[in-house]
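Chain A, query sequence.
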Amino acid sequence: MYSAVSLRGARRLASHRSTAALVAKCANGRRTLYEDAVASGPNAMYLENLYAQWKANPSKLDSKWSDYFAAMEAGTGASSVPGSSGAGGIQNLIRAYQVRGHEMAKLDPLGLHAWRTWSEKGLSETVPELELSYHGFSEADMDKTFQVSLPGLSDSPTLREIVAHMKSTYCGSVGIEYMHMGDGQKLDWIRSRVESPNFIPKDKAKLMKVYSELIRVDSFEQYLGHQYKTTKRFGVDGGEASVSGINAAIERASDLGMSEVVIGMPHRGRLNVLTNVVRKPLVQMYAEFKGTHYDFDNIVTKSESDDWLFSGDVKYHLGTNQVFTYENGKTVTATLEANPSHLETVNTVTLGRARAKQYYLGNTEETRKRVMPILFHGDASFAGQGVVYETMQLAHVSEYDVGGTIHVIINNQVGFTTDPVDDRSTLYSSDLGKGFGIPILHVNGDDPVAVTAAFELAAEWRQTWQKDVIVDVICYRRFGHNETDAPEYTQPVLYKQINKHPRSEAIYGQQLISSGVATQQELDAVKKDFWDKHEEAFTAADSFKPSDEADWVATKWEGFVRPTDMSNAHPTGVDFELLRKIGEKLCTTPEGFKVHNGLKRQLKKKQEDLDGGETLDWATAEALAFGTLLLEGNHVRIAGQDVQRGTFAHRHCVIKDQATGKDYCFLNNLDLGPQETFIARNSILAEYAVVGFELGISYENPSALIIWEAQFGDFANTAQVMTDQFISAGEHKWLQQSGLVMLLPHGYMGQGAEHSSARIERFLQMSDDDEDDIPNFKDNFGRNQVQKANWQVMNISTPANYFHALRRQQYRDFRKPMIVASPKNLFRLRQCVSPLAEMGPDSRFQRLLGERDPEIVANADKVDRLIFCSGKIYYELAEQREKLGLKNVAICTLEQIAPFPFDRVKTVMEQFPNVDVGDGVHPGSVIWCQEEPKNMGPWHYVKPRFVTTAREGFEKDMVMRYIGRRASASPATGYPKLHNAEQEALLKEAVLGAGDVSAEKGFTTHRPSSLLGHQT
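Chain A, predicted structure.
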């Protein structure tokens, strides 16, 4: 290593204005070695090297370098960096190959290298720095010797030998980008391996193993093509080596301490990976093609008896989990995540599951090595999908770091029907990786030996450095987007080339024969062996009997029930003494810890409330729920952009020492016996990737409460793909349960369109309970109902009910996602408090909270107006009612909006028999009141379900009355005065009514205010 002085001096030299002269003389039209290297870093390292040599012994370098460095040290400047044909010139030439050799590598199996011809993007097919003349050499210098150290060459190789070595290393079937990384140790690590003559294997045993693995992959595609010519399978034809390569990477990683691999990938090549990498049985795969893997009549019969129907999914979206052993004797557990067609969406779900596995194995650096994530990408999606950037940005963020991911780009050189020139602005689809300082290995997909070498290097890199790596397998798509597509419509010239191009196995097989490594008979025997296995499995598929268990479910889920199984209820109340002890710990900081003055007051108030036991606020109830779960052995993790403090400065679960900035977490210091770990992690400023990551964590272990909190509720819409494809439908498609909690701050406070609504209507629209299903009003209806629902949607109004909702997530025999329209102003509303008694042993979650005024309950026969609402508007309605002195109005809150609490609503409506429910045409005095516009919020979900309750519960043809804001394109106004006017109008209308909306007065007023919506 060089001294700090020499490094600093070299960096000063590299950044000196005299280097601009060299930059100016470089070839134009594309960034050159020196623009890439001197100006932005890598060549500065080269100058450091030369400068250190010059300082140690000036005579070792060409005299021009001595003049250059002497001038730079004297501050007089130099006209340019020397480009002589001496020692400096040869170092420049070597450096040029290391930096830009990949641009001349033979990467395209079709020989087109179209990406190098995009002159409109400022790119060129030529690389002047790789020309001898650029460095002052000519053909006459080819047999001169130089004092350089290159693996496999003598101490004084000729220029001819040096050039041949560099071309072989950097311009062959593997093109390597790594000089952008800037870390000398890592650069040397890669350089020493790729420049080694043993980087590409040459022994017969290895070459034949590569052939066998390639045939394993190829025979699968060919056999399916033979049996199912017109069936979509999204085969990997044209990129077969990428699948055999990932097998090599996994096997190599298993030698280096890896025992579990978690894979996320799109549909291209997925069936091949399922069978040949993850080892899903061939017979099961063929049964899925034949349709013998399920009994249609049985599914229909069970749907009728169970009242629940598993939808299933197409086979190229399915996941699996298998355990197998490689030839090296290492056993590997492989998980392939189920995924939708939305490309790149599965990325962080995969990483989340991998991170969870690492956590439960011990959460150490060693466990990071034991679990390795692999992500497959398409070339167009890797370059185009923003979630790829989000995924890579998580790589070294605390609590998101998975110890490196192997990214595999199956580079078909086309995106559905879009040419690469139109799907990116960069030279390579992988260029995003440069921004994260990771190595990128481009490799020709028709050279399976080079592909294997690249993948094994990627595995070694990941296991050694615990950082990401990209393997860009440049190949082609032999058929169209699917096997029934006609790609000639849009890529006629490309597909003329593809249609006459031999398969990879044929090319490689011929190479083995011509080089004398194998005979035709040997190769035929390998092919026959695999083909016979396909024939055998295909025949056996006719009698295949599927398992009743999902083959991807983690073992930690044993004992949990499906929607159709019987489940048990578990109490969520907690012993008072334990709650008080936890509460005391929530108010205590370490001795000497300097607490913020404002927080001191909050902690003092919290302790007083706990001592009194009557006025516990939202944050305290949440912390008590977390604390009890931790002591009961449940891991609790909450993540989002501001979760430690809370967007509204209410949580403060992790606080900072005002003098040192050191963290302190109350919940990890309960000191009340054994407890699980609590994690509160402020995430990167992204929703899509982070929600997916938390979802992946929730998949791995049901004994963990996993929460994602949005900064504001409507920001969840940037994660809408996760919500639509995974969270709401995952169990229905893949029998994959999750208990993920999404906290989405919601409530109208005059803050404008983007900070008011969590768009709760969208979640309700995706709720799968049928509004016309005749409800069962008997005991246990609520538990049975939620067990068959796809998720729960809440708008909770009391701290105690929130406490129970969180605990209920963990104390059921099944898991369901829970969407909570969480509060904003209720954190500090003095009325929004709960007594400790409502969290004690005999308490539980209430799906509906009835009238809370004891006097009104005692005189239920005097109530002639019944308001149902949800969330924080309850407190405003109650305040308005109290201000007007009304005792004839009852107010009830739906705490769990979906699945709809039919039984509890029926009980409440029967409690107030004198409320007019309408006459089937005109509305009565049963009201739904909401803050949201009429076309948003819960109205369109709850209205038909209230009607069903009345019809089936007590044979009434009810017409419900709507009171809320008028329909609107925007969720809320941005004018505070208009907001206040709207709020005042809907509160008054809800508790008073217009006065003439009755049968006697002809129902003349359907819209008492232009600020409100029509009432029916």
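The radius of gyration is 34 Å. Residues 1-43 have pLDDT under 50 and may be disordered.
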